[in-house]
Amino acid sequence: MRATLEPATTPPSGRGFTDVVLRPAAVAKAFLGEGHPLETIAVPGVALAENDVLIAVELSTICGSDVHTVHGRRPAPVPLVLGHESVGRVVAIGSAGAHAVDGAPLRLGDRVVWSVTVSCGSCDRCERGLTQKCRDLGKYGHERIGAHRELTGGFASHVQLRRGTTIVRVPEALPAAALAPASCATATAWAAVARAAQVRDLEDARVRIHGAGLVGLTAAAIAAEQGARVEISDPNPLRRALAARFGAREEPDAVRPEGPDVVIEASGHAVPAALSEVATGGVVVLVGSVFPADPVPLDAESIVRRVVTVAGVHNYTGSELADAVGFLAGRGRAYPFADAVGVVRPLSELDAALAEAAAPAAPLRVGVVAR
Ligand SMILES: [Zn+2]
Ligand SMILES: [Zn+2]
Asked: Which domain holds residue 280?
């Protein structure tokens, strides 16, 4: 079932629904529009549809797109509970149960992450595997809240997951700070690297990443683990200094005059450079251009003559989220993902936390906890 975008006139409780009373009430922070302080809303109970899963949030992190929304650089339907990078625990399940991505039934107490997108699974796009572009797409942290549908974003004590969400069980041993970004930064980085690997085997490939934000750094670690020689460019020296810790070489490869085999543009600001520098037969993955920006010139003849592949990647599929979590739980443990969360603030201080995340020397992520 889709989130109700207009207030429902009748409560959804009835056949198939499970009423869950929350004491103390769940709390969520509603964004009312640029320049308005966030509003705290209390949700004393939820009606779970048959396959819904209620999550108690352990930690959410503030993604760059939350900051853009709050600053009015990205249109959003309000009121809205932002936040789409979270890890939490299953505290209630609808009457028909729900399954993790691996097919196993979810149980109370399971620690999980979940996809930002909610897909129908049966439209033409879902059927060909493009679930993140479902014709009836829902997105956590992006939808106007409605009556009986308040817990739709991560900046809350609880999130109500609905059928069509990919839910991935996560290991107890991994820090929450490494897991919360899985459902945006990590999975998006995984999808970007996977897209490049469809065109160019990454073993010994030269990979250049533009943007040392969390997507870029994560893509660096993933590509390095697949045998690539990775370099990261970013105008911010603080961010650039992190690159070596995420598998990037400290100095660009001076030996080979030809450009990189793979360019992952994760900043949104270096698209012309990405298109012009890629080597013949190479691939450019555009993943950072998710905000309105001026069009850039495209030298089509050069793209054609160099036999360059240009690919757009937006969000990810459920199996890519599962693979991203598998990476964090496996070879990704060698990288300091948990250090991305430089500071954790209580939900009651979310306004200040969002300002902190927007500051020039902000950590890669600011964390938010409901207590
Ligand atoms: Zn995000
Ligand atoms: Zn669909």
From this structure: 186-312
